Amino acid sequence: MRLSFRVSGSVQGVGYRWFVKETAEKHNVSGWVRNIPDGSVEGEAQGGVPELDGFLKEIKTGHPHAKIENTETQEMLDQESTEKDFHIKPTV
Fold first, then answer.
1. Mind listing the pLDDT tens digit of every residue in the chain (92 residues)?
2. Which three-class secondary structure state does DSSP give residue 61?
3. Counting Cβ atoms within 10 Å, is residue 24 exposed (0-12), middle (13-18) or buried (19+)?
4. Which of 67, 57, 58, 60 lies closest to 11 in space, CA to CA?
5. How many Å apart are CA 45 and CA 19, to the nearest integer?
6. Residues forming beta bridges with residue 31, ordered by sequence position
7. Which residues participate in catalysis according to the annotation?
8. C-beta separation of 13 from 53 below 8 A
9. What is the reported pTM?
10. 3-state secondary structure of 25
């Protein structure tokens, strides 16, 4: 399963993208994350349902310095990728 996610709040300038990357690796999730100009963070994540559930729960609550105001996720049908790792993309 692959999904897109967007997290808004105080998530830039606190190491949040690195936290998301480490969390993805811990949960065996592949994909990417990046900052976007409106101050939010967006990305795509792929893995099994239990892995994605754990990943999403942790990125919503686990960072000690981020202040999450809103999270959005959407399943991406027919968009699975062969990527094997999780990486940080440059800011848009």
1. 999 999 999 999 999 999 999 999 999 999 999 999 999 999 999 999 999 999 999 999 989 999 999 999 999 987 777 888 999 999 98
2. helix
3. buried
4. 67
5. 14
6. 45, 86
7. 17, 35
8. no
9. 0.94
10. helix
CA distance 8 to 35: 10
Q: Report the b/e string of 74-83 with b at 16+ CB within 10 A.
A: eeeeeeeeee
Question: How high is the pLDDT of residue 6?
Answer: 98
Q: What CATH number does domain 2-83 carry, 2.30.250.10, 3.30.70.1060, 3.30.2130.10, 3.30.70.100?
A: 3.30.70.100
Domain residue ranges of the chain, discontinuous segments joined by +: 2-83
